[in-house]
Amino acid sequence: MAAGALRAARAIARLAGLAFLMTASANAASPEIVSELAPGGRLRAAINYGNPVLAQRDRAGAHEEIRRSLDRLGVDHVDLLQLHNLVDVIEWETALREGGALEAAVEARDEGLVRFIGVTGHGLTVAKMHFRSLERFPFDSVLLPYSYVQMRDERYSSDFDALAAVCVERGVAVQTIKSTTLAPWDGREQTATTWYEPLREQADIDLAVHWVLGRTGVFLNTVGDVTLLPKVLDAASRYESRPSDETMDELVARRSLIPLFS
Question: Cα(122)–Cα(87) distance, rounded to whole angstroms?
Answer without folding.
Answer: 7
